[in-house]
Amino acid sequence: MAGTPLAETPVGWVLPRLIVGLGNPGAKYDRTRHNIGFEVIDALAKSYPDISLVENKRFQGVAGEFRSAGERTILLKPTTFMNISGQAVRAVLDWYKLDPASVLVVYDDMDLPTGKLRLRLSGGAGGHNGMKSIIAHLGTQEFPRLRIGIGSTDKSGDKDSAVVSHVLGRFAPGDRKIVDAVIPMAVDAIDLSLRKGVERSMSLYNGREVEL
């Protein structure tokens, strides 16, 4: 991808080598709020030439490779179902002998307005079961993540049921337009992270609004 030349990446800044998008496998979950991580990985794969996402049983997911900044970079969509996503991430790290800090996880967040991006270098799971699994399998929460807002839901009554219904539901038409506009922005944020570091991307994309 061509872009405006940027200064050299400062020593010690984080350059991800494994990009993981979280979601659930199967057509019934396609384009649901919980699967926005899958959508970003699909869009990212399409933005680079010669990437094929294929099923990899060793990695318990759909995966592909490409070169970024001269380094091998892996894309992964776990097919383990959300609650045990960590198994797939651990399998890839062990195979390529990567450090947990080289993982960038992309996932949905109910605490952010629909379409809002938030990059962080570390942090807790925030109640997200996929992130709980990854943190448990990696034994650390010191790895970057890109959260994409899916909006909150009315939690009156049965809170757990309301949350499940929200994350496994599909976006309303108006929200879908916002999501369709923010996915390319998420791809650009990840691409910049790969080339110039997560810190640089944070400074440019955190708080940026989608214009429809």
Shape: globular
Strand order of the largest sheet: 2-3-4-1-5-7-6
- Give me the CATH fold name: Rossmann fold
Radius of gyration, in Å, reads 16 Å
Q: Uncertain runs with pLDDT below 50, 5 residues or more? A: 1-7
CATH-level-2 architecture: 3-Layer(aba) Sandwich
CATH superfamily: Peptidyl-tRNA hydrolase
Structural class: alpha/beta
In percent, how helical is the residue content? 25-40%
Q: Classify the beta-strand content into a percent band.
A: 15-25%
Report the strand count: 7
Number of alpha- plus pi-helical segments: 6
The top-level CATH class is Alpha Beta
Average pLDDT score: 91
Can you give a write-up of this model?
The two termini are 24 Å apart. The chain is 35% helix and 18% strand. It has a single domain (18-202), classed as Rossmann fold, CATH 3.40.50.1470. The chain has a seven-stranded mixed β-sheet with strand order 2-3-4-1-5-7-6, with helices on both faces. The protein is globular, with a radius of gyration of 16 Å. The chain has 212 residues and is of the alpha/beta class. The chain has helices at 36-47, 85-96, 129-138, 159-167, 173-196, 198-205; strands at 18-21, 54-56, 61-68, 71-78, 103-109, 117-120, 145-149. Helix 2 runs parallel beside helix 3 and helix 5 runs antiparallel to helix 6 (198-205). It is built from six helices and seven strands, in the order βαβββαββαβααα. A hairpin with a 4-residue loop joins strand 2 and strand 3 (61-68).
